[in-house]
Sequence to fold (164 residues):
Amino acid sequence: VFKLKLHWQVLIAMALGTIFALTFKENSLFVAPLGTIFMRLLKMIIVPLILFSITSGVASLGDSRSLGRMGAKTFIYYFATSIFAILVGLVLTNIIQPGVGLEYTSSSQSFDPNSLQKPSSLGEIIIRMIPLNPISAMADGDMLGVIFWSIVFGFAITRLSGRP
Fold:
């Protein structure tokens, strides 16, 4: 039907949605359930998408040496992008200085950082990554558990000898 590329269709739809919302402010409330349904559908597809993409990606690497190299590259990339995000956040915070000029008022519901549960060791952090049940990890949206299970399952596929 449309000969436009997908990214142009998305941009046009976003522009039309913005124009519609600004034009029909009060009358646009009847569209709200459609937005809620759309967001729920997106959230519903996240876990299977991550599960199958990581599993097939790990399985397509073939051997454990390739998996190790890819894991090292992924760790380096994750570490570098985290450092970059921290630096950008610090620079922008020092430039913009959010909250300057505002008066601090204590609320009745103050936050106590000591109430947070802290892992006692690196071993406990690793143990928390491994789900007791991969199905419940998927149902609960425990993404670290889903990612761990996907990697293990993909690696197990590479160890299979022969085709079914």
Notes: The mean pLDDT is 87. Residues 64-96 form the longest helix (33 residues).
